[in-house]
Design goal:
OB fold (Dihydrolipoamide Acetyltransferase, E2P), Rossmann fold, 6-stranded parallel beta sheet, about 20% strand, globular, binds adenosine-5'-diphosphate, binds magnesium ion
């Protein structure tokens, strides 16, 4: 048996079943064995009907009096019956499962698993799954539950697994660092547990295996990176001092430390591969500016990639102001840039030192003479291939230094595993004088009495900063609407409707809107007017989420707050609280349900790192990873908060790498980790 054989070489899996499996990513024999149960039903201790309580239950009994009827509501069939054991009887009901009528034999016993709940005036067992009692392994009483894939239900997977039961003994070892045979046992007991303990042991080993692969992938990425060459940028203390002295403010200690780490990295002949994490408003752009300044003074060109035209333009304007006094040429390259051709010629001749742009930077005809540093803002917005494209624009044989920036903090546990081999700098300090944003949850019905007065108050305050909002009458407001179509109402309509309502309520104010469907040039124009203070209230979709910096905006309203994730709300909120004035964020909810844990945490805390930990607990690592990196990390079992297991895997990977011939010997392992290598790399 070869684990990489196609799945249809297994008994009982024909071309049709294989087709379905393939659609769900189960292509090989290996994939099939690793399609682990999501859970186990424990049939060892069913409840007696006399002692039943509401909630999830397992009962063992016979079924009778089954009948199906149509409900008054169209398209709904209701199948009802009675389940009996020695102690009593309960009602059972299924919706749209009329096949249940034919499923049961009256004299046989079944296990029923489902919710015992109060519905339409009485208690019943709702939509339980049912298995023949004689089919369940009687020694353990455990039965695996698989995620259904298309037509293939959990019971189908059980049947197919059973068909290959004797194949497990042939599974070879994967890792050198564990007891021989442990892998085949683990896979076997994951599918056919003879006790809860054996199932748990199996999963622990498989989690370990997964962590081992993940960590090995990260370590190999690191080794590969260290084999590349980069332009060495000598550190010039007097240049840096001069630049820092020109700034209108003092750097925070965190900015100082991060830039020092970057300067050190760039002096080396291997490319820097550093992630700069900093909460919204922590001043990452300034750190990027210093890195760019240093690299350019060392003779290299620098590219800064931003996810949106608004953001690229803003970076362009602030960096130009900072760097042009030092005779550094700065250019902006977005889709809307006129005369791209001449600009690209200038870039290829090295006449432009710093190019700031969007995806337009990535096209094949954008060549650099000597690209030495790449800065990627909001790096999770870009895919691996996009980042790669830019990295390949260095002179032949050289790779640029890479500084990736993100405002989504990585929880520490994730950092230790996935990002364990990345260099990370953290801006954990906000510039002096900032005040935390005051966040309140309010319901829609309170809009007029609580929210409007707060808005009025902010609009009548003196403008915050001189630089920004120099044409402002008072301070400014963001009002965030849903960015997706809902109940047939498009983002355009919802933004326009809200805009009109606000204009009616605040007749003396200038209210305008912004949404994703607008032409880039129109968007930029609106943003420009908001930035200069001509607009008092900006009604917008989440297009303002990323990086926009208007310190005179001090109040934000987020409609439908419950529909956003924690990280995104924190990002949005970061658009206010950027100046010296007290700022506010109102999270508007429908008020139908109790506010979620997410929103309550957001109301309590302004600390992005704390919120990231909470988010990790609430959503699990897969989701978090998706928002950090483009592309999902699909961990089957490993928990990234299991520090003990992580530590063991780290130690074992270290040992594994000490013997380079291992990489040739363990072919399956090396083949399996390429997918992890792709997602744990920055460049
Ligand atoms: P982010 O980390 O969210 O990208 P920015 O780089 O946009 O933050 O910086 C936010 C604001 O803080 C900008 O207006 C910037 O000029 C300002 N800023 C950056 N560093 C400092 C500092 N050390 N002191 C005061 N203001 C700063
Ligand atoms: Mg930013």
């Amino acid at each position: 048996m070869n684990l990489f054989d196609s799945v249809d070489t297994l008994k009982g899996i024909g071309p049709k079943t294989a087709e379905v499996l393939k659609k769900y990513g189960i292509r090989t024999v290996r994939d099939f064995f690793y399609n682990l149960p999501r859970d186990y039903e424990n049939y060892a201790r069913p409840v007696s009907i006399a002692g039943i309580r509401p909630g999830k239950v397992i009962v063992k009994g016979k079924i009778d009096s089954l009948s199906t009827r149509r409900a008054r509501r169209r398209n709904l069939s209701i199948t009802e019956g009675v389940i009996r054991d020695k102690t009593g009887a309960i009602k059972v009901v299924w919706f749209n499962q009329s096949y249940r009528i034919r499923q049961f034999e009256p004299e046989k016993e079944y296990f029923f698993t489902g919710d015992y709940e109060f519905r339409n005036g009485k208690y019943s067992l709702t939509s339980p799954s049912a298995v023949l009692a004689s089919d369940v392994d009687t020694t353990s009483g455990l039965s695996p539950v698989y995620v259904a894939h298309g037509k293939l239900k959990s019971s189908d997977f059980k049947r197919l697994m059973n068909g290959s039961r004797d194949k497990f003994a042939l599974i070879p070892d994967l890792l050198p660092t564990v007891r021989p045979g442990v892998r085949k046992d683990a896979l076997f007991f994951a599918h056919f547990p003879n006790s809860l303990k054996s199932a748990e042991g199996a999963r622990e080993y498989l989690a370990y295996e997964e962590l081992f692969e993940l960590i090995l992938a990260a370590k190999l990425n690191r080794q590969e990176n260290d084999r590349l060459r980069a332009t060495e940028i000598p550190f010039d203390a007097s240049l840096v001092r001069e630049f820092v002295a020109s700034l209108p403010f003092k750097l925070t200690n965190a900015q100082r430390l991060a830039s020092w780490e970057i300067f050190q990295d760039m002096t080396r002949p291997t490319p820097m591969n550093r992630l700069l994490q900093g909460d919204v408003g922590s001043g990452k752009t300034m750190v990027a500016a210093m890195a760019a300044y240093e690299a350019i003074s060392g003779g290299a060109q620098v590219a800064l990639l931003a996810p949106t035209a608004i953001l690229a333009t803003q970076h362009y304007e602030s960096l130009k102001k900072l760097l042009e006094p030092f005779h550094i040429t700065v250019a902006l390259l977005t889709g809307a840039t006129k005369d791209k051709k001449n600009l690209k010629v200038a870039i290829s001749q090295g006449k432009i030192s710093l190019v700031i742009g969007t995806h337009a930077l990535l096209t094949d005809d954008t060549d650099f003479l000597n690209l030495g540093l790449v800065v990627i803002d909001e790096q999770h917005r870009f895919g691996v291939e996009q980042r790669q494209k830019l990295m390949l624009k260095s002179p032949p044989g050289l790779a640029p230094h890479l500084l990736a920036m993100t405002a989504t903090p990585i929880p520490r546990s994730l950092q230790l595993t996935l990002f364990g081999d990345l260099d990370v700098s953290i801006l954990n300090e906000l510039p002096a004088g900032r005040q935390p944003v005051k966040t309140s949850l309010i319901t829609e019905v309170e809009t007029k009495e609580r929210l409007y007065p707060a808005i009025r108050e902010v609009l009548s305050r003196r403008p915050d900063a001189k630089k920004h909002g120099d044409r402002a009458h008072g301070q400014q407001v963001y009002w965030i609407c849903k960015a997706i179509e809902e109940n047939g109402i498009s983002e355009t309509t919802s933004v326009k409707t809200r805009c009109k309502k606000l204009q009616d309520s605040f007749p003396k104010c200038r209210v305008e809107f912004l949404h994703g469907k607008m032409k880039p040039a129109d968007k930029d124009a609106v943003m420009e007017r908001f930035s200069s203070g001509e607009i008092d209230i900006l009604v917008s979709t989440t297009v303002v989420e990323v990086g926009v910096d208007v310190p005179n905006a001090t109040l934000m309203v987020v409609e439908n707050a419950e529909s956003y994730g924690l990280a995104q709300l924190h990002q949005l909120r970061g658009r206010v609280g950027r100046g010296a004035s007290e700022s506010f964020c109102f999270l508007l909810t429908s008020g139908d349900a109790r506010p979620s844990k997410r929103l309550l945490e957001l109301e309590r805390s302004n600390d992005g790192f704390h919120l990231a930990e909470v988010d990790l607990k609430l959503r699990g690592p897969g989701e978090i990873y998706g928002s950090l990196q483009h592309g999902a990390l699909d961990l089957r079992i490993a928990s990234l908060s299991d520090t003990k297991l992580i530590h063991r895997a780290q130690e074992d990977v270290k040992k594994f790498l000490m013997e380079p011939e291992n990489m040739l010997k363990y072919k399956e392992l090396m083949q399996g980790i390429t997918k992890y290598q792709q997602i744990t790399t920055l460049n």
